[in-house]
Amino acid sequence: MADQTNAAAPETAAPDMAGLTKRQLKRMKRFDNPWNNPKLIWGITLLMGIIALGIFGRIFWDTDLVFTGAVMPSQAPPGFENLRGQAGLASSPLGTDVAGRDLLALLIVGAPNSLYVGMLASLIGMSLGIFLGFTAGYTGGRIDDVIRVGSDVMITIPPLLILVVVQASFGDITLTMMAILIAAFVWQSPTRLIRAQVLSMRESGYVQMARLSGASNRHIMFREMLPNLVPYLFGSFIANVTTSIVTAVGLEVLGLGPQRVPTLGRVIYDAIDSAALTRDMWWWWGFPTVLLMVMFIGLLLINLGLDEVSNPRLRRL
Amino acid sequence: MARYLANRVFTLFLTVFIAATLIWIIPRLSPVNPVDAMLGRMASGGGTIENSGALLDQLTERFGFNDPLIVQYWLYIKNTLTFDFGLSTASFPTPVAQMIATALPWTLGLMLLALILTFIIGNLLGALMVWEHTPRPWKVVIPAAMVFTSMPPILSGLLLMYVFSSTLGWFPLTGAYGIRVEPGWSLDFIGSVAHHGILPAMSIVLVTFGFWALGMRGLMITVQGEDYTVLAKAKGLRKRYILYKYMIRNAILPQITAFALKIGMLVAGQVLVERIFAYPGMGKLLYDAILTQDYPVIQGVSFVIILMTALAVFFVDLLYPLIDPRIRLGA
Amino acid sequence: MSVLDIKNIHIDFPTSKGVVHAVTDVTLSVEKGRRIGFIGESGSGKTTTALAAMRMLANPGFVASGEVHLNSLEGDTNVLHLDEEGMRRVRLRKISYIPQGAMNSLNPVMRIESQIWDAVVAHEGAMEQSALLERSNTALDGVGLDPKVVGRLYPHELSGGMKQRVCIAIGTCLTPDLIIADEPTSALDVITQRHVMQTLREMQEKIGAGLILIGHDMGLMAQSVDDIAVLKKGVLVEFGPVRRIIEGAEHPYTRELISSVPLVGGESFLHAQAAPPKGEKLDVPLLELDGVGKQYGAVTALHPMSFALDGEEPKIISIVGQSGSGKSTMGSLMLGFNDPTTGSVNFKGDDINKMNAAERLEFRKQVQAVFQDPYACFNPFYRVNHALKFPFENFGMQGDVDAAMHEACEAVGLDPSLVLGRYPHQLSGGQRQRLIVARALMLSPKLLIADEPVSMVDASLRATILANIHDLKDKHGISIIYITHDLATAYHVSDYVMVLYHGHVVEAGPPKDVIGDPQHAYTRLLIDSIPWPDLDRDWGDAGDARAALDALAQIGGTPETVYRGDIPGFTLRQG
User: Which of A2-6, A14-18, B219-223, C116-120 is least confident?
Assistant: First the structure.
């Protein structure tokens, strides 16, 4: 039954292309190259947008406006009024906060910072995961047991709480430092995933063929197994970027995390702390929220797209 | 079975032990003496420190700086395992254990409500995304609702608060019950608690249900192609019966394992939600402690939450053989 | 009276490459109480046609035109006109389905009896618990399972044969007009296959239903059905009583299907060669197993045994056995993929598990393998050339890789321009398996381990691929260890046969003696269980099959090997 669709197609008579709409034909073409996936492309576009904001913002806007008192405080964006009835100024297109910081400048500096923490933490976590996953899956035995139990234990401990303890003891930390700390909590799921994949691939025909060909363990791991893991690794990486950003923002919103560097979470913390909600300063917490949402939707779309790349059953005609 | 149990118990203890040890080691890696740092920060905060002598004594004794490290560690483990976290520095001399005992029921109640809601809603929607008989409008609405998954819980909290409290005024902005209501087992109080609990619970559900739905979607796609689903249809069973007893019943199994693994993440998210809604649970306690540099409270709250998570994982693992007969013999 | 009439049915599958006409203009009728076999290769439309009658086509297939009449329906008998609820009522009650994948066809989290009850309730409404229990007891009793024990079990606690019998119990519990059995025994070994098939026949005769048996094994068809329908690429090419088809097939494709089944004692599909080239003469055996045994925990996969194969005169040694007999364990021990628990595996006198890196590379170069699953043997990430090129370069072999690849492809009858440079998923299973044989040829090893090389390839290609492998011996002087469950091919291909049962060699000798005239009870049972495409050879009834299973249970312990004669250059002993 299950092989019905697969088996029926290639070996019977030649397909009949007549009677299909242009739209269907276009969709069919997409099947030939799974990477040509609209979700994937949209997701990447959104993330590129955030990066572009960081790059072009620095060129066309004055990032010194992130400092306290740089501009008029509590200004609404142009076309809106704050509670005191002052109309927004064109010099601060996204408004300002109570300390007189320009919101656009904060976002230009803050958004790429949040993305940077997520990417770096995920990259370190993935590298650890690949190393541990391959080691556990390929060597087995006692080492495998230790790695497995270790990841079981570490996956239970919520990273945010340990990070709170770290912050409370160390005070201020840098962005990179925070990324490294978060990385200590995002290696577990890639480790499990890779271990499971390596275990199943180890018994697969092509790995046995490679062994027959006298391949070294290194060749088998990196040339035979790793390329087939690429879609999974990408998916896992993106999922980890999301987790890392959520954790980082969570820390920042608690007022922890880097104290002197603007991040999206920090802006939201300040907004909540200064009761922006009751003062009706929606732009203060609204714009960073929208940027975070754009970032997460981009990551979600990339993840869904990658799912479809690695699992053809999810693709639909 | 005995091996399975022993395995789980071992993992539980190891988790609790490692968490406790991390909480102990981290402040010691800090370049500054935590006691001095704390007192310094408090003094610089401008507040006069009443009982500062007693405070210093209790901190020194608590951290046992006069003893060798190994003794300090032993003392700490012993205290922690008996839930003796010392006295709060911010509201000295209240025992930390007492503060946690007051906050814990709020957190547990909110967490249970949110977790159960999100698990049911998420998995059901995920299953409906795949089921061939789902009405067409649902197939469009569900993926669109997935956008909320992309938000961190604080943002959903803020958004809900802005829409339903600030703008519409349907729900109270913060707190766990009304100011004019007397705590107790009265209808008024329970109603007030429910009224206050809806928004925080919803903001957790809103951002987490999509995670379950996506996972369920993948599992359902696999189950849909399984031979037993095909045979169920060939047996002429009713479509809803097949959906519940054959598809969801099998697809849900890995989700339950994931449930255990993700509890930690969800609890952490809840800490943030409690903080925005000023909900008097562990999250709020933790946040206030961070603001006041109340180290014993931070330590105690972190440990109790990790313990709760580890226990939840343990119980889910224990219950798992009851829902998957294949585990029973396989051990 | 006919139960089911299929009239001019066309079935289409829209795919990414365009619309595939899976079934074209098929017309046939199933008479009450009669058994019809649908035979053809994968993709021939045999399952699709049968499933159209249940309206259970896999997505996105649909019936483009034609009629399917179920004559016991009242009013409009065309099932294609029924609404969803009406169709649901037809399934199982009127037409039941016995699936192919017995392993996964039962809900893993439900007890067996509940899976019978839900079917009964879905068609007859809720009833008393005791009434339900009676129904499940009757159903399980009918297929020879103890309802008190089996009913309470979960699917994972049953063997493959038992699961398939549960599926038969479900399929017959509402006494349908028609049973569709989709390769019900393809995952089972021959002894269990006979038992399951006989149970199905017995139940079908008891309830007097029509039966459509879908399969690709002409032997099984000959022993089980009354009429045969041969399908090729969605077209019904031949339909008629089984004797007429087997003895006087008209369509060339049918004749090809029949002749592709090798018969013990029948004509060989191999072309005799004059004198195979000699291998090098060594003082020590090419491959020697010295007291080799293997245990996995408490389970003994292979009891200690020894043999020595001399490489001078190339030979094919067959190792025959059912799944779990230890034959694949032997294969992986010989390749050094597994360490033996006792004894040593020596290649040209050296223990292969004690070699250093350089020796091991040399060993790998000289001992190659062909595995069962041609789909898994190619890394999906690379073009197929990778599998041929990499070992050639890794072993530091002289000469032009591309020229060697082309030459090897041509030697196994593949057109290099059609296969090289493609990705694995673009090739058929048969093409892939021949490429693997070409790979072995290119490396010109001294010894080839062929582990079930044709069991996953379509029947018509099996003979060709085995002939390719046989050529490796005849034309290139490579000795071959042929591991298989198929006694008929072992009979034709090999110079020496060992029959393995529960890790013991129970009978060994030249194939003409061991398979042509078996002495050991197990070998005899195996040969009797094979469904021969020979109508005059009786396969026995359900009682025989049950007696055979009982006899099988008697063989156990530590059976003595029955030695049936020696051939020069090969010695075998227990221990």
Answer: A2-6
Tokens for B127, please give them. 């299953």
Which one has a higher pLDDT value, A143 or B49? A143
> Do both B148 and B6 map to the same domain?
no
- Report the alpha-carbon distance of residue B138 to residue B128 in Å, rounded: 8
Query: Could you tell me the residue range of the domain that residue B15 belongs to?
Result: 2-81
Name the residue of chain B whose CA is nearest to C87's CA: B236
Q: Mind giving me the DSSP string for B25-62?
A: HHHHHSSS-HHHHHHHHHHHTT---TTHHHHHHHHHHH
Do B15 and B130 lie in one domain? The reply is no
Chain C adjacent subunits, 3+ CB pairs under 8 A: A, B
Q: How far is CA B79 from CA A95, B28, B97, B299, in A?
A: 51, 17, 11, 12
| Domain termination site, one of B54, B81, B108 | B81
Pick B120 or A139 by higher pLDDT.
Answer: B120
Distance, CA of B60 to CA of A13 (rounded, Å): 85
Is the distance from CB of C545 to CB of C194 less than 8 angstroms? yes
Model ipTM over 0.85? no
- Quote the CA–CA distance of C451 and C371 in Å, as a whole number: 5
List the beta strands (DSSP E) in C395-503: 447-451, 479-484, 496-501
Domain identity same for B289 and B179: yes
CB B324 to CB C109 under 8 A? yes
Task: Please tell me if residue C455 touches chain A, with a CB cutoff of 8 Å.
Answer: no
Same structural domain, B214 and B110: yes
Closest CB to C91: pick one of B235, B253, B326. B235
Window C:5-34, CB contacts with A under 8 Å: 13-22, 24
A87: pLDDT strictly greater than 60: yes
Give how far Cα B127 sits from Cα of B119, B210, B255, C515, Å: 12, 12, 12, 54
User: Which tens digit of pLDDT belongs to each residue from A178-228?
Assistant: 899 889 888 888 898 889 888 888 888 899 999 999 888 889 988 899 888
Residues in chain A: 317
Sheet holding C299-309, edge to edge: C350-351, C342-347, C287-296, C299-309, C570-574
Distance in angstroms (rounded) separating the CA atoms of residues B93 and A147: 43
Strands (E), C429-544: 447-451, 479-484, 496-501, 504-509
Architecture in CATH for domain C287-520+559-574: 3-Layer(aba) Sandwich (3.40)
Domain membership flag for residue B185: yes
Residue-level pLDDT at A34: 66
What pLDDT score does A45 carry?
A: 93
The pair of three-digit structure tokens given for residue A91, joined into one six-digit string: 């010099």
Number of domains observed in the structure of chain B:
2
Torsion of CA C475, C481, C482, C485, to 10 degrees: 170
Residue A50 has pLDDT above 70, yes or no: yes
Query: Domain ranges in chain C?
Result: 31-56+92-259, 287-520+559-574
Q: What is the mean pLDDT of residues C85-106?
A: 88
Q: Examine the domain organization and report whether B225 and B292 are in the same domain.
A: yes
Query: Which of A268-282, B127-141, C20-34 shows the lowest mean pLDDT across its residues?
Result: A268-282
Question: Could you name the CATH architecture of C31-56+92-259?
Answer: 3-Layer(aba) Sandwich (3.40)
pTM: 0.81
Q: Among residues B46, B81, B116, which one ends one of the domains?
A: B81
**Which one of B227, B236, B241 has the shortest CB-CB distance to C91?**
B236
- Model confidence at C21: pLDDT above 80: yes
Nearest CB neighbour to C119, from listed B237, B324, B329: B237
In a domain, B331, yes or no: no
Strand partners, C562: C507
Question: Is the pLDDT higher at C452 or at B194?
Answer: C452
Q: Give the model's confidence band at B80: pLDDT under 50 very low, under 70 low, under 90 confident, else very high.
A: confident
Decide: helix, strand or coil at residue C337: coil
What mean pLDDT is predicted for residues C464-493? Answer: 89
